[in-house]
Write a structure and sequence with these properties.
The chain is mostly beta strands and 466 residues long. The chain has seven helices and 23 strands. The longest helix is centred in the middle third of the chain and has 6 residues, at 296-301. The chain is globular and about 70 Å long.
Length: 466
């Protein structure tokens, strides 16, 4: 049956982040003429703000029936809401259901925009729909007003990778809203001045990471030992136990974008080929690649510049879901002009079992600047050391067939202005040792209340002055 999927937007009435809130709902099925209506799913939403707008993005999927061109995907959807209207708690409609002229929004359906490899209706290789659609065009988060870009009548930015076929790529795209102050015009009378544009960077560092797994250190997996009794394995008969698996890295799309120091910061997972002078062969691991995009030239002539790019790869180990955040300059908001990348660190130590057999999934980070050419000092710091392997239902479901070991969801980092330069960050990790034997049961709160019988992941939240 038709199902309305909403994005809930909560806006504080005053300065207290705990509320009270004005609450709004964005209906993914707001347009009856859109392919897939009324069965559209809004997935992977991300938000940001500019001086004038509240930015919201999601990927759009038709759950029943065809989308654009009859395909399975309608592309990235970008919204720019009138921020002042949200802050004032204005109603969306009037007394009789008519649109409130003071509540305005700009919409860009990126599924209708061509890509270098075709369109969402038909790609250049298979001539099929749903392949070459813009996806995961993530808005850039500016932590405070001093970091907003107010050029061109108020601007907002998005960053996107382009690996449409899962074969790797060396292109990234930067998109921009301009003229966002026109959202404040009554009934959007001047909203024709709002523009959505973009710029393609070709020949950047190659990235390739379509659904590969990051290794993790071997250890006790009590749920894996009982996956048959838990109903997770399949077959006739289903295996009684399942082996330890890896950590999902999902793919090479960007999951978070930051804006600071007149730069846009973003990173994605990629396969890394590590070579060592003392070893006979190379090692393939999951690492990260990042890009820093300058906005000063955009402000003056409308063109972005590539400030820096580099790979990050821990020796003999793996990482997943990189996220970046930068502080401002000291004169702006108490920052120090530096940044961090955070991620989940795991691994089995490679063929030699380095680092005492590797790492259980841990929260880690590295410091950098816009021109440091990698992590400062090539150092990865562990903020919270993992205590056991991931041992969750998604790790074993469907074994011995294909499993989907979900990890996360994801990493995030943000600079807190006037905090003494602190950047707060969060990733997933495994925070407690797994119990074994009779201590473990397939119930809630097993192992002394440290985990659920079917899952054991956790989230760590930290801060650091980079």
């Amino acid at each position: 049956m038709a199902n309305t999927c909403y994005e809930g937007i909560a806006v504080t009435v005053g300065p207290d982040p705990f509320g009270p809130y004005g609450v709004y709902f964005l209906d993914a099925n707001y347009d009856p003429s859109e392919p897939g209506y009324p069965y559209l799913l809004n997935d992977f939403a991300k938000i940001a703000t500019t001086r004038d707008a509240f930015l919201l993005f999601y990927n759009e999927y038709p759950l029943f029936g065809g989308g654009l061109g009859g395909g399975f995907f309608n592309g990235a959807q970008e919204f720019a809401f009138n921020k002042k209207a949200l802050e004032l708690g204005l109603p969306v409609t009037g007394r009789y259901g008519e649109p409130n002229p003071a509540f305005t929004v700009a919409i860009e359906n990126m599924g209708l925009l061509p890509t270098p490899d075709g369109t969402c209706f038909s790609d250049n290789m298979f001539h099929a729909p749903g392949f070459t659609c813009w996806f995961a065009a993530i808005p850039a988060v500016a932590p405070d007003p001093s970091q907003y870009d107010n050029s061109h009548g108020g601007s907002g930015f998005m960053l996107n990778t382009l690996d449409f076929y899962g074969q790797g790529d060396n292109r990234i795209a930067v998109f921009d809203w301009t003229g966002l102050h026109h959202l404040n015009s009554p009934n959007c009378s001047a909203c024709g001045g709002i523009q959505f544009g973009g710029q393609l960077f070709s020949g950047v560092l190659f990235y390739y990471g379509e659904g590969f797994l990051a290794a993790q250190k071997g250890g006790p997996i009590p749920l894996g030992d009982q996956c048959g009794a838990a109903g997770l394995s399949v077959g006739s008969p289903p295996p009684a136990s399942c082996p330890e698996g890896g950590i999902a890295t999902n793919g090479d799309e960007i999951t978070q974008v930051s804006q600071a120091q007149h730069q846009i910061w973003g990173a994605t997972t990629t396969e890394i080929n590590q070579t060592y002078s003392s070893g006979p062969s190379s090692e393939v691991h999951q690492g990260a690649v990042y890009w820093v995009i300058g906005t000063d030239n955009f402000d003056s002539i409308g063109a972005f510049t590539l400030t820096s790019q580099q790979y990050v790869s821990p020796k003999h180990e793996d990482l997943a879901f990189p996220a970046m955040a930068a502080g401002g300059f000291a004169s702006e908001d108490g920052g120090n002009g530096k940044a961090i990348m955070t991620f989940t660190l795991s691994g089995n130590g490679g063929p030699t079992g380095a680092h005492h057999g590797g790492f259980y999934p841990s929260t880690a980070y590295g410091r950098l600047t816009s021109t440091s050419n990698g992590l400062s000092g090539s150092v990865i710091n562990i903020a919270d050391l993992g205590q056991s392997p991931q041992d969750s239902f998604s790790e074993y479901g469907g074994y011995p067939g294909r499993t989907r070991p979900r990890w996360g969801d994801y990493s995030n980092a943000i600079f807190l202005p006037w905090s003494g330069g602190k950047i707060f960050f969060a990733t997933e990790y495994i925070q407690y040792p797994n119990c074994t034997g009779s201590e473990f049961t397939l119930t809630l709160g097993t192992c002394g209340g440290t985990r659920d019988g079917y899952a054991n992941w956790g989230t760590s939240v930290n801060f650091v002055v980079p």
